[in-house]
Structures are given as structure tokens and as C-alpha cells.
């Protein structure tokens, strides 16, 4: 085996033992079926590590930073997101493995990574994803409605504190309405044999709405120039869309760009139209605040 091939095999070996340790740590922090599934994947990774060790004849240690990073993500934003993000990196590793497919047994490992482990990951259950629809309901409505309301109020009122106050009152009232909608939606899904609690659906919807409201009105409380505050709010709205779309696209194996562009365009289009309406109302009624 030449030096380049040996180095690639050592890297593959270290990838597998690193992922094995991550899955084992996640399994310890999980319960029931999730723990069992994660332990099964850990055993697969350990077997792959043993395969590569038989070729390289060296010992390697897991990458401590990777282990710490992915276990941190699992604790903060969920096991499924952490695992899916790690697996995305592994797809790049599989491209490198294909350069080693002349070695007997490598093709089988690639098939195992692409099919068997993905099937096991799909078996992991997590409440955050079960109620993702409720969170999206709260986020979408808050982004579309409040960015529009704040943009309209910005030109109609031209007082940052007044806009922030009006935005919060509007947003808080709307969050209660959205929580009720989330409850009714959760109740409807429960009748269709979905394992969801209507009360939890309402909670996730309402909290997502309120959290988004607080983020979007913050610039009006912090920046002296009201138009700078509007620009900051619109920027935050796009960042919220990007962040949550990335989370969902990774956790649910969906495409990022179509979902991000659709939601961002809708939110910004509503804001522009509302800004125009605010301008018109100010001009027609001669409001000066």
C-alpha cells in the first residue's frame, strides 16, 4: 500500500472511531428506543473502525473537538439535528472512500453507511421534530405579520418606542390567537392517529410566535434611528428564516434553498407592501407622532 492510500485509510479509521464515540455518548443520554438505535449505529461504526484498523495496522484516537461539538449540539438543538449534520460531513468522507474501493470490503462499508445507518437514523424519535409543524406555524405567521406591521407602523408613526410598543401589543395578542390555532390544529391531527398533544402544539406555536416578536421589536428599542431599526428588523427576519430553515433541512433531510427563498420572499414582500400602506396612510391622514 502506497503512502497516500495508507493516509486515506487512517483518516477513514479515525472518522469511524470518532463517530462511534459520539453515538455512544448520545445513546447514554437517550432513553428507550432512541438509545437502542444509537447503540446499534455505534456498533456499526466500531465494526468499520476495526475493518480499517486491520488495513492500517495502527491505533488512532477519536477527534475530541468533533466529539464535544456534536454532543453539545445534541444537548442544545436535538439529537436528530446533530446526527444528520454529522452524516452530511460523512457523505464527503464517502467520496474519499470511493477512491479506496479497490480494497476488498470498502464497497460494503459504503453501502452500509448510505443505506443501513440512514434507515436507523430515521427511526430516532424526537419531540422537537414531532412539533416542528407547530413551531413553523408560529414562526411563519410572526415573521410575515409582524415584519409587515412594523414596516407599516415605521412610516405611519415614525417613533421607535411607539412602534415597538404597538408591535409588542399586536404580536402578543396574535400569539394568543396562534396558540389557539395550534391547539385546534393539534386536536385535528390527534383525531388522525397522530401522537401529538394539542396543548403542547399550542405551547410550541405560541412560544415560537412570542420569541420571534421579541427579536423583531428589539431594534426599535436599541437603535435611535427608526429606519435603521427597520433595516435591522428585516435583516433579523431573514436570519431567523435562514436559521430555522437550515435546522429543518438538516433534521428532516430536506432541500434548503427552495424553502428559505420562499419564506424570505414572502416576508420581505409583505413588509414592502405594508411600508407603502403606512406611507399612504400617513400622507392621507396627516398623522405626526
Description:
The chain has 289 residues and is an all-alpha fold. 84% of the residues lie in helices and 0% in strands. It has eleven helices and no strands. The mean pLDDT is 86.
Largest sheet: none
Distance between the termini: 78 Å
Q: Average pLDDT, to the nearest integer? A: 86
Structural class: mainly alpha
**Helical fraction:** over 70%
Rounded to the nearest angstrom, the radius of gyration is 25 Å
Shape assignment:
elongated
> Spans with pLDDT under 50 lasting ≥5 residues?
none
The total beta strand count reads 0
* Order of helix and strand elements from N to C terminus: HHHHHHHHHHH
Strand content: under 5%
Oligomer: single chain
Count of individual helical segments = 11
Number of domains: 2
Secondary structure topology:
Elements: H1 3-29, H2 32-56, H3 64-77, H4 79-98, H5 106-121, H6 127-130, H7 132-157, H8 160-190, H9 198-222, H10 226-251, H11 256-285
Q: Any descriptors?
A:
mainly alpha, 289 residues, 0% strand
Give a concise summary.
The protein has 289 residues and is mostly helical.
Amino acid at each position: 500500500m502506497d503512502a497516500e492510500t495508507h493516509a486515506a485509510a487512517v483518516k477513514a479509521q479515525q472518522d469511524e472511531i470518532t463517530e462511534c464515540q459520539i453515538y455512544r455518548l448520545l445513546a447514554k443520554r437517550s432513553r428507550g428506543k432512541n438509545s437502542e438505535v444509537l447503540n446499534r449505529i455505534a456498533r456499526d461504526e466500531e465494526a468499520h473502525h476495526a475493518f480499517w484498523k486491520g488495513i492500517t495496522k495502527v491505533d488512532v484516537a477519536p477527534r475530541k473537538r468533533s466529539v464535544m461539538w456534536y454532543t453539545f449540539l445534541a444537548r442544545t438543538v436535538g439529537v436528530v439535528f446533530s446526527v444528520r449534520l454529522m452524516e452530511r460531513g460523512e457523505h464527503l468522507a464517502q467520496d474519499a472512500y470511493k477512491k479506496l474501493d479497490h480494497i476488498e470490503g470498502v464497497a460494503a462499508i459504503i453501502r452500509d453507511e448510505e443505506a443501513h445507518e440512514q434507515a436507523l437514523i430515521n427511526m430516532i424519535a424526537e419531540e422537537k421534530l414531532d412539533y416542528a409543524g407547530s413551531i413553523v406555524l408560529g414562526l411563519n405567521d410572526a415573521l410575515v405579520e409582524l415584519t409587515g406591521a412594523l414596516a407599516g407602523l415605521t412610516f405611519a408613526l415614525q417613533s421607535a418606542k411607539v412602534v415597538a410598543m404597538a408591535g409588542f401589543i399586536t404580536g402578543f395578542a396574535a400569539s394568543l390567537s396562534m396558540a389557539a390555532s395550534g391547539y385546534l390544529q393539534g386536536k385535528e391531527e390527534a383525531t388522525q392517529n397522530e401522537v401529538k398533544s394539542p396543548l403542547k402544539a399550542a405551547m410550541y406555536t405560541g412560544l415560537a410566535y412570542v420569541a420571534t416578536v421579541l427579536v423583531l421589536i428589539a431594534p426599535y428599542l436599541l437603535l435611535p434611528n427608526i429606519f435603521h431599526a427597520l433595516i435591522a428588523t428585516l435583516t433579523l427576519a431573514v436570519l431567523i428564516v435562514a436559521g430555522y430553515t437550515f435546522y429543518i433541512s438538516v433534521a428532516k433531510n430536506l432541500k434548503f434553498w427552495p424553502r428559505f427563498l420562499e419564506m424570505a420572499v414572502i416576508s420581505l414582500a409583505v413588509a414592502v407592501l405594508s411600508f407603502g400602506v403606512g406611507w399612504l396612510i400617513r400622507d392621507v391622514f396627516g398623522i405626526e407622532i
